[in-house]
Write a structure and sequence with these properties.
Shape: globular
Largest sheet: 7 strands, mixed
Mean pLDDT: 90
Number of strands: 62
Number of helices: 2
Strand content: 35-45%
Helix content: under 10%
Radius of gyration: 30 Å
Structural class: mainly beta
Amino acid sequence: MLQKLGFAPGFNKQVTETGAEGQWFDGDNVRFRYGSPEKIGGWEQLGSNKLTGAARAIHNWDNNVGIKYSAIGTNRILYVFSDGEYYDIHPIRTTITGANFTSTAGSPTVTITVSSNHGLLDNDIVLFDAVSGLSGSTFTNATFEDEKFMVTSVPSSTSFTITMATNEAGTPVTNAGSASILCYFNVGPATQESGFGWSSGLFGGVVNGEATSTLATALTDTTTTNIVLASSNSFPASGTIRIGTEDISYTANNTGTNTLSGGARGVNGTTKATHSSSAAVTDITQFTAWGEETSSSDFTINPGLWVLDNYGQKLIALIYNGKCFEWDGAPSNAVNTRATVIPNAPTASRHVLVSTPDRHLVFFGTETSVGDPLTQDDMFIRFSDQENIDQSDSYTVRAENTAGTQRLSDGSRIMGAIKGRDAIYVWTDTALFLMQFVGQPFTFAFSQVGTNCGLLGKNACREVDGSVYWMSENGFFSYDGQLKTLPCLVEDFVYSTNAGLGINTVARDLVNCGLNNLYGEINWFYCSASSSVVDRVVTFNYLDSTRERPVWTVGSLARTAWQDSSIFSKPHASLYDPNDNNCYDVTGNTQGLTVYYEQETGTDQVNYGGVTTALIGTITSGAFDITQRRSNTGQVVGTPDLRGDGEFIMRISRFIPDFIEQTGTTAVNFKTRIYPNSTTVSNNFTCDSTTTFKSTRVRAREVELQIANTTSGENWKLGTFRLDISPGGRR
C-alpha cells in the first residue's frame, strides 16, 4: 500500500535516530521553508583578491551620494570594499623615520634597525615609504616602496625582521639605505585560546589595565639595577616588567625617584638587550611567563576583533579593548584616506555603537577617566554629547550637554550591545539591560530585564523586528518585552563536545551571529570543540517556528563574520583559511587569508579565482518503522501504518519521488537496519525531474530517508514522498 512520508520541520538531535520518528534528524547545507526542507543557496567571491588575516566584522552602509561601502575588519587590516575593489584604510599607530636595512646572502630575512623604540610585535603590519639608498642588493628601493610586510620577529626595541618573497642573491647590505616606516595599529591574534604554554603577551589575559610607563634613561645590556622610569607610581613594590622582548624582575620600587632596583635581567627565558630612553615599559607581574602553564578558567588570550558602525557617512571602527577610529566615506575623501583616531574619545573600550535616532557615540567597558587606559572598567558605559563625537568636550559630563556615564551592577564585564527598535540592549556575562534614550537631564535610562542569561561572546546576539535572540553559556534566549528561554532541539548537540562537533567555549569571542532575513534565519557560527577556527553553524528559523515546534538546523557552513542584506540585495560573509598565506598585499604573511562572499546566489560554491565546486545539501530523517493493526482475536486488519513500534520487518517495493523544485539529479538513500545498534545498510537510488517511480527491494525493521545532491548545478526542494510498503513478518 502507498503511504505518504511526513516529517516535522527542523532537526531533532535531542534523541537518537530511532527516537526521532516522524522528524528530521540530521543534515548539512539545508534549510526549511514553509515546513519543507531544501538546499541552501550558493555563494560567490566578491572582488578578485583575498584579505590578510581573519575577518571578524563586516558593516555595510552608503554615503550621502549613494556610494555603497563594505567595511571588513580582519585581525590585521581594516579594509573597505567598494565597486569591486578592496582598499586598505587601516589606521597608522606611528611613523618611524631613518630606518636602515640589513640582509644576508642566501636568506629571505631582512633586519630593519631604527633609532627609537618601535613598539612592534610579531605579526604586526608595516608599510615602507620614502625608501632610498639601496643598490647592489636583490632588494631594491622599489622592492620596499609603498609595500606592506608582516613583522617576523622583534629582536629588540629598535630592530625587527621581515621575510622577503625571495632570498638575497645580490650584494648583501649592512645598515644601509633609509626609509620611513608606517606602523599599523595592532588588532590581535586570529584565534582565542587558553593560556597553556603561551606567553601572555600584551593582548589581554586575566590582567586588565596593566601598569605602563616609559624609560627615563636608556638601558645597556649590562645594566642590572636602578631602572629609572618616567613614573613608577602605578607599579607594584616588587614584580616583573617587560621592555621590548626582554623581561626584567625587580625587588624594590622607589616611587620618590621612580626607580626599580634589586632585579635580574632577561628572566622568563628572554634575552638581555639595549633599550633606548622613552622605550615602553609594561608591568607583567600577573602575566603568565613563557612556559608557565595556566588553566583555561583563569587565562584566555583575547582574539583580534573589531566593532563597526556608521555615524552618518562616517565609519566608526573600534579595536576590541583598544582605540576607536573614524573614516569619512565622503566622495572627496573616500578610498585614498586612512581611518584616524577619534580625538578626545576613550582609548580602551570593549564595545561601541552609534545610538539612533539620537546620535550619541556610546562606549561600553570603557575608561572612567577618558584617555587613561589604566582606568578601563569592564562594567562602565560612557556616551558622547549628542551630535558631537570628536570635540574636546564631547565626553565631558556637563549640565549643558548630554554626555554621561553609567556603571552596570550585575555581572563582571559587559559582553556586547546592539541597537533595537526602541532601546539599546546591553549584556553582561550574567544579565541583560535596556538602555533607552529619555533626553535631558539623564539622557539615557537603564533597567535590568534579565538575569542568569548572559551573552556568550560579544557577537553572539541579533535583533529582529523588535525581538532579540542570543546565545548564552548554556542555552539560547529571546527577549520581546519578556525574557524567554528559546526551545532548541539541537541544544545538547551544540553544547556537548560529543564527536568534536559541539562548541569550543574557550573560543567564545569568535562566535558570531548573522541574520538572513531573506529566509527568516538566525545563524550562530562557532568553533567546534576540536577547532580554534570557526567551522560550524547552528540556525534558528524564526519565521517557521512555534513555541511548541521550534525549527533548528546544524551544519558545516563556516563564516567568521556575516552582514545581512540591506543596501546590498544579498548577505555578505567571510571565510577564513588559516593555512593560506598566498597574500596579494602583505609580503611575509603567516596569518592566513579571508575570502569575502556574496551569499544566497546560485547553487554552488564559486571560490577564489572563479573556481566552482559543488555545494552538497543533504538531509536525513529519523528512523520510521511499520506496525499492523489487529482485531480482538489477533487477526491482522487494515493497512499498515508507518508510525509503528518496530514489531514487523518492513518491505518497501517502490517509492514515488516528489520535489517542489528539482534541478539535475538527486540521490535518494534508504538507510536500513534491523535493530538500533545494528550495522546500517545503504540502499541508493537516483532520480531526476522525469522520474515517476523507482522499484526497490528494501527490507528492514528501521528505515531512514536521506536526500542529497551530488554534483554542481543541482538544486532541490522536497515535497511529499510516497512509499509502497507492506509488513514482512517479525524476523
